[in-house]
Design goal:
This protein has 108 residues and is of the alpha+beta class. The chain contains five helices and five strands, in the order H-E-H-E-E-E-H-E-H-H. A three-stranded mixed sheet has the order 1-2-5, covered by helices on one side. A two-stranded antiparallel ribbon has the order 3-4. It has one domain. A hairpin with a 2-residue loop joins strand 3 and strand 4.
């Protein structure tokens, strides 16, 4: 943030790739400085064609499919709160699957 505040006039684009919360915060930092920010989103992707809808994200108020329309989007237009909620939807099932996998692995 401090680099952007000091040298923001020399920076015309920021590209963020990483944890969703980090990309959200980066977008919040660059928005008031009017620096174009691109986020490479990582929602759950199942079929890679958009047919299943698992990778849907809201961008500029419209539903987009990351596997078809992205995964790069204008970070200032991404609804990160909705994306975070969707990513957390399966956390419990992911945890259960991991526990089952580790249990089966240790039995071998």
């Amino acid at each position: 943030k401090s680099i952007l505040e000091k040298r923001g006039d020399q920076i015309n684009r920021v590209i963020v790739i990483g944890p969703t919360i980090m990309m959200k915060i980066a977008a919040e930092i660059t928005r008031p400085l009017k620096i174009k920010t691109i986020a490479s989103l990582n929602p759950i992707m199942v079929d890679g064609t958009g047919m299943c809808g698992a990778c849907r994200v809201k961008v500029a108020g419209e539903i987009k499919f990351a596997c078809v329309h992205g995964p790069e989007f204008d970070a200032h237009e991404v609804d990160f709160d909705e994306l975070i909620n969707r990513l957390n939807m399966y956390k419990e099932l992911e945890y259960q699957a991991l526990e089952k996998y580790l249990g089966e692995k240790s039995e071998k």
